[in-house]
Amino acid sequence: MDIIFEQAYLFLLFCFILSFFLIFTITRSRSSLKVAPSPPGPPRLPIIGNIHLVGKNPHHSFADLSKTYGPIMSLKFGSLNTVVVSSPEAAREVLRTYDQILSNRSSTNSIRFINHHEVSVVWLPPSSPRWRLLRKLAATQLFSPQRLEATKTLRENKVKELVSFISESSEREEAVDISRATFITALNIISNILFSVDLGSYDSKKFSEFQDTVIGVMESVGKPDAANFFPFLGFLDLQGNRKTLKACSERLFKVFRGFIDAKIAEKSLRNVNPKDVSKRDFVDVLLDLTEGDEAELNTNDIEHLLFDLFGAGTDTNSSTVEWAMAELLRNPEKMGKAQAEIDSVIGQKGVVKESDISELPYLQAVVKETFRLHPAAPLLVPRKAEFDVEVLGFLVPKDAQVLVNVWAIGRDPSVWENPSRFEPERFMGKEIDVRGRDYELTPFGAGRRICPGLPLAVKTVPLMLASLLYSFDWKLPNGVLSEDLDMEESFGLTLHKTNPLHAVPVKKRCLN
C-alpha cells in the first residue's frame, strides 16, 4: 500500500511540474508574440476610424500626422487597417528588407470593378506567373538598354516636333499649355514604341480629351473611396470613381482594340519576318504570344497591359516636366543657371540630343529636385502585407494596406535642409539617385515593385526639359509675377497641377 501511495505521489508531482513547465512555456511564447506593438496613431472614432482626419490631399494629411505620431503610423479607415511610413529608414524596411512580404497590392474598388486587378502588371501579386511574364516582356522588349538605344532617334524626333510647335506659338506670342504640349510629346513617344503611330496632334483639340481620359484614370484609382473602407458600399459608387474609371477605360480600350485589330489584319495579309526587329513594335511582339495551342496571352491581356503602360508612360512624364517648368518660372535665377549650362554644352548645334544630358549635371539636379518636391506618385501604389511583419519595432498586421509617403520624405527637415525650397544645388556633387537605391528619394519606388518605366522616364523627362530651356526663354502671361504662380496640387494615383501651367515662349535662336 505504501508503495502505491508513493507511486501516486510521484505521479502527481510529475504532473504538477509538467503543468508548471507548460504554463511557463505558453506564457513566455505569448509574451514573445506581443513584443512588437502596433504603430502609434491618432485616436479612432467608432465605425469610421480616422477617415475624418484625411483631407483632399491625403499625402499632406499623412505628413502632418506623422509629425505627431512618427515615421511609422497606424490608421484605420473603416474596416481597412493602414500603415503609413514617412522616413527613409522606414521606406527601406518596406521597399527592400521586407519587400517580399509587402509586395502584394491593395487594389481599389474601381480597379476591381473593371477586373483590371486580375490581369494588370500593377495589381497582380509577384507570385503570379502572369505578373512575371508581363514584367519580363516590359523589361526585355520595352525598357532594356538595347531597346532604349534603338528608340533613341524616335524620342529625339518627337521632342523636335514639340520644339517646332512651341516655335510657332512663339512667333504668335501665344502662351503654351505646358501640360498639354508635353503630354502630346510623351503620348507620341509611347504610342510609336507600342503601335508605330502618333496618337497625338498639337493642332487638334480632340487630343486634350485623351489627356483628360488618362488623368481621369489616375484620379479615379487614387482618390479616397468609401467603398475601399466599407466594401458593402461598393455598389453605391458614392464618389463616382467606378463610373469614371469605367468610362475612361472603355475609351482607351476602344483605341487599343482598333490598333490590335488592324495589326492582326495586316499580319494575315503579309508575312513579316519575325527576326526583322526594325519593322516590329511592342504590340507585334505581344500578338506573337497569342498564337498557338499554348498561347501565353490573349487580346484582353494586351489591352490591359497597354492600359498600364499608357498611364505610366504619358501622364507621369508630362506632369514632371510641367512641375519642373513651374518651379523654374518661380525661381528665374535657377532657370538662368540651367540655361547657361545648356548653352555652354550645346552651343550653336541647334538641338539637344540624349547623349548631351550626361554633360548637364545642373539640369539633372533640376530634375531630381522636381522629383523630390513633386513625386509623380506621392504615396506610390498601395502595398499589402502578406503576413504579419515587424517594421522598425512595430507590427504591420497581415492584410494591412501599406503606404510609403515619398512626398513627405522629400520634404522632411531632418533629411533635407530648407526642404520647401527649390534648390537643385543640393544634388550637385552628390551620388543621390532616383533608381531605388537611395530611400530619401524614391519617386519610382524600389524593389520588385519599382516602376518598370523608370529607364524611359529618366531619358524622356530631361530631354524634353533641356530642349525647352535651350530653344526658348520663358515668361508668365498677363503680367503674372513669379512669386504669385499657382502651385496647387490635385491628388490621384499621380499628382497634377490643379491649374495647368501656361507660359509664353520667346525664341532664343534659329531652330533647325
From TrEMBL:
Top-level division of the source organism's lineage: Eukaryota
One Pfam family of this chain: p450
Keyword set, alphabetical order: Heme, Iron, Membrane, Metal-binding, Monooxygenase, Oxidoreductase, Transmembrane, Transmembrane helix
Residue stretches spanning the membrane: 7-26
InterPro entries given in the database record: Cyt_P450, Cyt_P450_CS, Cyt_P450_E_grp-I, Cyt_P450_sf
Positions bound to heme: 451
Cofactor(s) this protein cannot do without: heme
Coiled coil: none
Family, similarity comment: Belongs to the cytochrome P450 family.
Protein name: CYP76C2
Species name: Arabidopsis lyrata subsp. lyrata
